[in-house]
Input
Amino acid sequence: MSKSIVKSVSSKSIVEQAKGSFHGGIHPAEFKNISNQQSIKDLPIAAQLVIPVKQQLGQTGEVVVNLGDRISRGQLLVKATGILSANIHSPADGIVTSLSPAYVGHPSGMKSAAITIKTDLEQSEGKIFEPIDWRNPSNLEEIQSRIRQAGIVGLGGATFPTHVKTSSREINTLIVNAMECEPFITCDDRMLKDIPKQVIEGAQIVANLVKAKNIIFATEDNKQLSIEKLSEAISKTTESIPMSIVVAPTKYPSGGEKQTIELVTGKQVPSGKIPASMGLLVQNVATLHAVFNAVVKGQPLYQRLVTITGNLVDRPGNYWIAFGTQITDLIEHFNVDVNDCEKVIIGGPLMGQSVTDFTAPVTKATNCLIFNKADKTEKAWLTQTTEHQPCIRCGECEKVCPADLLPQQLLWYSQSDQWENLQQQGILDCIECGACAYVCPSEIPLVQYYRYGKSSLKDIQRKNVIAEKAKKRFDFKEMRIQREKAERAAKHKKAAEARRQAALDKKNDSDGKQQAINDALARVKQKKASVGQAQGVAQTETDEKKES
Amino acid sequence: MMNLSSPFFHKAMPTNKVMMLVCVALIPGIITQVYFFGFGVIINLILCAVFAVSAEYTILKLRTREPRTSIQDNSALLTGLLLAVALPPTLPFWMTFVGVWFAIIFGKQLYGGLGYNPFNPAMVGYVLLLISFPVEMTAWLPARELAVSLPSFYESSQLIFFAQTADGLTVENFRQLADGFTMATPLDHLKTETTLGRMNSEIFANPDMALNLNGWKWVNLMFLLGGLYLLAIKIVRWHIPVAYLLAMIITSFLLNTYDNQLYAAPSFHLLTGATMLGAFFIATDPVSASTTPKGRLIYGALIGFLIVIIRTFGGYPDAIAFAVLLLNIAVPTIDHYTKPVIYGHKKETELHD
Ligand code: SF4
Ligand code: SF4
Output
């Protein structure tokens, strides 16, 4: 069926099959129908928002509001510090009621810096930026700084600050990542169905900015409706940069940046290089829409489209949700029976994380929330991690690894703390997709071992750096001590030399006296020579004493 | 305990089920063995299973581990069964006991248990027995059509437990043919006759040899069937068996072409001894085999090659166990040199536009 779609529109040569493929991959049950049938809706602003101060990769920004401040929708709350940082704006009018740390969803249960806002009942429009005429070539700098101002980060899950990626001017192709390969998640799919024109405009803005010559939308063949909508929108548009759609066979994790690139271009990103080195920029659908919002509507990134799904939700679908909205509010809004819900999964079931403390808020990284009753009969859900069976080296994991690693060897070296071998086996190339753990017959939580291995490796590298510095310091100190010692020794030698000289002079001086004493002693010796050994010994002792 | 860290999804056949299915796949071969060589096969299977599981249990208790989970992974059971089908059907029970316990203790548990053993445990036990009791270990009964009479279930158990039946018959009596000669396995027979200077055309013309071969052929075909089942349900991947069998065919073909009177044909090597059992059930033991795709090809091919070489030029009639153990030693080296190229580490990666 998917093939026929590709064919029917390929006459317009917009849609083509992916020319590349990547190693391995899995085909988990999709569960996408739960949430992709309904069109996008807004979620009313909750009475209280708990906004984490850090929501992206990189440095934490600086809080620029005070306790008790009255704030308006779109107002800056957290100011970016440094390049790898992003602004955070208020999604609502209201009052800052707390600046003390709150639980923001960290797996360890740790509290982090957060801004708590009590929101007003009446909400204003909250537009704070002037729209930019992005088609005017003289506005490029303004667009770039707008992306930065608006606090846009990669919304596919990585939360890498977008302005860093768009600062390149040597891009050939902008790849729009619409693979969305993880089960349950449908927000990008739904965006392409409902508002394809806005996504297209966002893509044009970015492509224009980075001087890309063409735009490729990369998607999977299980998203037929959005492919249709998108190609329709593309064929109607008058935008200047040519666009096409590449459709890959549905397979997890085709949405991984490296896998998407391999599917679209047939090439791999060389290890240690970034896609820009190949003239490529990959952006996720939601991110491009955020760019559209910021540039065309003047709206900063203070909300995002989130898939609300799972068998405990009464109205699953995709909703615009303000950052800081707590899961407790969603539980109430979607009539989730908390007794059945032992945990909520943030993100997808393969790479997401789970929380059991439902005060955790929605952040820039939250693309999906799964409220699912752990059905013991449903085999897909991994329910226990108590005691896994040993690795039997069956190689199933190797068969599915998209990074061409040998997960069983990574496991072996992680378990036995052999960090050097672990690095040689390429642990740093592991994208933590979880495909290996998905197929492992011994149900080994492989990814957890790799996370542990990676962090241990980083620790060691950090320690090595520290040790290296310490060694340099030590060497320098050694050198200094040696030098000082040598100097001291030279000084002493000189002094001793002087003393000896002095003594020698004195000796010469007193030689006459000494001679007299020696003569006298010789005489005494001669006298006593006949007395015997005892005296001889005593004599020696006296001599020794004299010497000392 | 709840699983709080991704992935939350899982879809795989659990290890214990994998092991169980391998046991199940042995069934056609086992039935054929029983048909051609009598009920001793069944008794051996039961003995081996009991010995293997009890050995595993005892050792785990001594290692103060919880034995239940390990027993439930069915790997000890599988080791026992694999050894059982490789043993002559009338082997004295205490030898079986020694072999199985040695396999579990020295072949597996002393290395840390399942997953850590560099050698195939069943083959460790087999080789110990073969070296310690070469006479008993090569005392196979003649196949059904050739035998004067196969021991009944009762007689088999008496042979196994008391070395003779109530009528005073020993294993040797059952091994004698109508003409008073004793029939060895076809591999054994070929070896002895070749050493005596006989030519292949003579040896294979012997109707006794043909009848005996027929039994072994069927046993091999049935293990092949079980193996194909494992391939079909994707428990065994094709690399090792295909490389193993191809290497055997090529090696024996070359030798046979060089001198067809001195060296047996590929068809003989494929359908006698433990060839098919080895190809699908023993060389494919994942724990002790190479773990990279290319490595598995090399590993399988070298085993197949060694089997023909040892059968032809070595001191023992069959060679699966030796070949497998030798290659087990080579696994770390093979794995080291056959690592797949990690994503992004390939040479040519420029982008055409
Ligand atoms: S899938 Fe699991 S048991 Fe099989 S080799 Fe990989 S880690 Fe080991
Ligand atoms: S988690 Fe890492 S090792 Fe496992 S399949 Fe994905 S990339 Fe490979």
Observations:
- Chain A has two domains: 15-355, 388-502.
- The longest helix of chain A spans residues 446-528.
- The CA atoms of residues 398 and 406 of chain A lie 5 Å apart.
- The two ends of chain A are 110 Å apart (CA to CA).
